[in-house]
């Protein structure tokens, strides 16, 4: 079965065509440039999917623009939302529908990969750190600003701190390096704290644009999965 999975995040729209469990084509575009997809050779060359699944956390305007792009196929997209249960995962959120659909897709994909307790990390505009237990129950998790948002907040709400590219250093000896190092360590410390509360031997799956920087600093074994949310969208759509 050919399934077109679309992940509309705060910064990028990622998409992939899955055919019989394998990625046939993958792509991404900045949210503000979503109309560029219409002229993208890979997008225009896609064969007609049999199903389309969309996880959109970028708002109603993006949904309207996506609907226009997806209208080329005579098949109605499935606009996914978090539910109380799906694909063997139970949602323990107090109000299940309030869970971000990207986080829901990520834990569904993580459950397909691991049967034990798993920490599921999405490192994007925001960083989310979620616990999926061995029984397949999503127990909840944390949301914190991603590194870029942390740096932007320091620049915007202080009088002198620059929005500059620094390097990770221990110890940092310049303001730019101090900001870069502090923001990275804040991400890593939150993940390590959450992981310490899981049973021994728990898995940790990390995905998202900021994954590599985080993984490099973690002191336990991590599985990097580049297209975790798209994998979950495929599972939820089929």
Mind summarizing the main beta sheet?
7 strands, mixed
**Helicity, in percent?**
25-40%
Calculate Rg over CA atoms.
Answer: 19 Å
Q: What's the CATH class label of the largest domain?
A: Alpha Beta
Order of strands, main sheet, comes to 6-7-10-9-8-11-12
List low-pLDDT spans. Answer: none
Description:
The protein is globular. With 238 residues, the chain is α/β, with parallel strands linked by helices. The chain has seven helices and twelve strands. α3 packs across α7 (228-237). The protein has two domains: 2-79, Nucleotidyltransferase, domain 5 (2-Layer Sandwich), CATH 3.30.420.40; 115-147 and 161-229, ATPase, nucleotide binding domain (Nucleotidyltransferase, domain 5, 2-Layer Sandwich), CATH 3.30.420.40. The protein has helices at residues 41-44, 60-70, 101-113, 147-157, 175-196, 211-215, 228-237, and strands at residues 2-8, 12-19, 22-30, 51-56, 78-79, 85-86, 89-91, 118-123, 126-132, 137-145, 203-207, 223-224. The longest helix has 22 residues, at 175-196. The model has no long low-confidence stretch (mean pLDDT 95). A hairpin with a 2-residue loop joins β2 and β3 (22-30).
């Amino acid at each position: 079965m050919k399934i077109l999975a679309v992940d509309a995040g705060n910064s990028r729209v990622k998409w992939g065509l899955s055919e019989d469990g394998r990625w046939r084509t993958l792509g991404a575009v900045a949210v503000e440039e979503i109309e560029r997809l219409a002229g993208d050779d890979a997008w225009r060359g896609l064969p007609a999917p049999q199903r389309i699944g969309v996880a959109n956390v970028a708002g109603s305007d993006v949904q309207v623009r996506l609907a226009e792009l997806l209208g080329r196929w005579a098949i109605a997209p499935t606009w996914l939302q978090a539910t109380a249960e799906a694909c063997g995962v139970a949602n323990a959120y107090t109000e299940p529908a309030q869970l971000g659909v990207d986080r829901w897709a990520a834990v569904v994909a993580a459950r397909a990969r691991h049967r034990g307790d798993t920490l599921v990390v999405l490192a994007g505009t925001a960083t989310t750190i979620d616990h999926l237990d061995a029984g397949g129950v999503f127990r909840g998790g944390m949301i914190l600003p991603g590194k870029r948002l942390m740096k932007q907040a320091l620049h915007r709400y202080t009088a002198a701190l620059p929005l500059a590219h620094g390097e990770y250093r221990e110890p940092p000896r310049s303001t730019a390096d101090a900001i870069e190092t502090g923001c990275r360590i804040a991400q890593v410390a939150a993940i390590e704290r959450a992981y310490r509360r899981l049973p021994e031997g728990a898995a940790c799956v990390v995905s998202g644009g900021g994954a590599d920087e985080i993984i490099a600093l973690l002191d336990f074994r991590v599985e990097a999965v580049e297209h975790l949310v798209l994998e979950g969208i495929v599972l939820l759509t089929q």
